[in-house]
Each structure stands twice: as C-alpha cells, then as structure tokens.
Amino acid sequence: MGSPTVVVVGAGQAGSDTAAALRSQGFAGRIVLVGDEDALPYRKPLLSKEYLVGDPEGEDTALRPASFYAGQGIELRTGDPAVRIDREGRRLVLASGEELGYDHLVLATGARPRRLSVPGAELDGVLALRTLADARTLRTALAGTGDLLVVGGGFIGLEVAAAARASGVRVTVVETRDRLMGRSVSAPTARYLAEQHTAHGVRLLLSEELTALHGEEGRVRVAELGRGERIRADLVVAGVGVLPNTALAADAGLEVGDGILVDPRLRTADPRIHAIGDCARFPSRHAPRHLRLESVQNAADQARSVAAAIHAPADPPPYDAVPWFWTRQYGARLQIAGITDGHDRTVTVGDPAGGRFSVFCFRDGLLLGTESVNRPADHMITRRLLATGDRSLTPEAVAAPGFDLKHRQPQPA
C-alpha cells in the first residue's frame, strides 16, 4: 500500500493550515491544496482593516510564501475550482478537467457574501467584501468616494465603516436591528461600539432598512430607506452576512443545512471526508446548538484537529476548542471569548468611558463568555475558564466591589 493522498478543497485559512499542519505533524503522503482564486492563500482579517486603509502592515496578505508550499511538498492548485466529488471512486474533479484521487478529502470551501436583494442592487458601486479581489476593488473605490453607505452593522460592515472614516469618507450605516452587532454582542458592548462610531462621525440608522438603490448612468447615487428618507450614496457596501459554500458537498450526497453537517470529530457521513472552517456546522459543548463559526481561530483550530485525525486516525478526540473572535475599530480591540448570545444577564467590569472594560455574559447564572474591550487578560482568563469547564464564576462574584479576574484560578471540570 502506497502513501495516502489528502486533497484539501479551499485554499483559505482552514485549507492552507490543514496542509501545513499535516506536514508539521509528520504526514508523509501526498497533499494537494485546491483553490478557486488565482492567488496564494491569504489572511482575510487584514482585508477589512490594514489593507483597506493602505497600511503598509496590511500589504503582505499571503499566509505563507510560495516557497513554503514547494518546500513542504504541498501541491498548490490555484485558479482551478473543484466542481465534483466522485465519492465511490474517491476522486475530485476540477474545472480544468483534472481528476485528483484521494484517500482523505477535506472540504474547507468557506462562504460567500449574501447579496442585497433590493431594486438597484445590480448598479455599479454596490460592493461586498470577502476576497482579496473584493478588497482591491473597494480600496480603489473608497479613494474616489464622498458618501459611503454600509448596509449591515456587523463585523465586516463596522470595520469597513471605521476604515472609510480613517480615509475621510462620509459614512452612513443602516442596520435593521435596534443595535449594532446584535447577533454577536451584548447590549453594553453594542452601545459602546455605537458611541465610538458616532464619535468618529459615522451616521448610524438603527431599526432602519434599505428598500431601493437608484443610479445615474448605471452607477449608484441614492439610497432609499424604509422610513422614506433618501440619502446620497456614491458607494454601497453590503455587510449582510454570508452563505456557506455547500454545493459541492450537497451534490455529492452529503448532508447540509446552513453548512456541511459534521460530527464532533468534524467528519461528514462519509468517513473519508471532513469539513472545516466557515462551511462546516458542528456540535459543540460551548453552545446549545450546532455551530457554524466564521473566524480565523476556528479555521486554524479545526485545521490542526483534522490534520491530527488524518495523520493518527486510531481514536481522534472530539473538536473542543473554545470559540473566540475579535475585531478592531478606531483603536479599540474587542475580543469575545465563548458564545455569548442567549445570555440573560450581563455584568460590566472596568471603565467603558475610558475604553477598557469587560462584559461578562451569563445564562441561568452560568458564564457563557466575556466581551473585552482593551482588556486582553480578561479575555485570556475567560478562555481558560471555559476550556477547563470551570463554571464557578457567578454574576454576584463579578459584580462584587474589587473583583479582579486575574485572581481567578481555573479549576478542572
């Protein structure tokens, strides 16, 4: 029996890290990394931050140089999308017609932006941000824009708004919910973010919706809102979520549902196929439901977990990493440890007015997670508490005068 072959579909963070982790963990077989974009795997978090504002630190977006893949014996197929999985024959078919046999297949197909569905969404100047090509187009467009409309007050929308303000662009954010990042953070954190954006000149329109876009000579000029207001918009960025890329898996008969469904070890119903990263929906002890997480941390952790399971498949442990997320806007670094939605009580510690605080989120008296602004120690300690299963931290303890999380020592479950 020859050396096994692993084919990884998706050359983003999850896919690239899987290939790298296989080699670093000692896998000696053939590794093929397939990507539909004609670019080296790159770091997406830079695209809505440093890269967008032309910061020199954001110009080098590559995760690893081309020499890394060649040096590690990782065959990189970029600009050649996968179009079909032949599960019975254990072969992956690429758009070029090339067929790749595999012993293990890893689906790291990522997600794509959800598009606006209002009249006028097809006009020039209506953009989304997901890929390096998107970021290049948006950066160029921002340089000649007076008025930007951001649709959606989530991670991407707010990071774009902050970057645009740094470039002097007038920015309006329209959000259908009554607060920013309503799916991701608590009310105190959302309030802080809203205050930051307002202080930096962003016009926030909450509980509002975009109903139509109007243009001149094919290019967007005016946005029409639900309450009847019409505002100027030379450029529109849609930050209204993403859709997981599941078509390849669904066509192969694998179960999908807002993501490719996998077990606690990130395996699909086909034992030779794993799914990881933004496209995978998995069970987690850190949430009451299956999760599909769009984060670099999740992509990297799942990549290492799957690489270990493929390399030493005897009894792989379930994937159990604590979810965490981050964003940076106007110099404020927000770090979220755990899944905090569904909380029924929050306790804020620190100084929101001074831009250094943490919001502890509880449900039924148990800690779900912490949202920390410029308090990295709280974030790290919370991650350790959640990882060990220490549930002894109570809302009353956090609310007590003089509380300091640094004095907490995580206890084993």
Automatic annotation (TrEMBL):
Residues 5-303 form the FAD/NAD(P)-binding domain. InterPro entries: FAD-oxidoreductase/Apoptosis, FAD/NAD-bd_sf, FAD/NAD-binding_dom, FAD/NAD-linked_Rdtase_dimer_sf, Reductase_C. Residues 324-407 form the Reductase C-terminal domain. It holds the Pfam family Reductase_C. Signal peptide: none annotated. Gene3D superfamilies: 3.30.390.30, FAD/NAD(P)-binding domain (3.50.50.60). Its cofactor is FAD. SUPFAM superfamilies: FAD/NAD(P)-binding domain (SSF51905), FAD/NAD-linked reductases, dimerisation (C-terminal) domain (SSF55424). GO terms for molecular function: oxidoreductase activity. It comes from the Bacteria. Keywords: FAD, Flavoprotein, Oxidoreductase. This is Pyridine nucleotide-disulfide oxidoreductase.
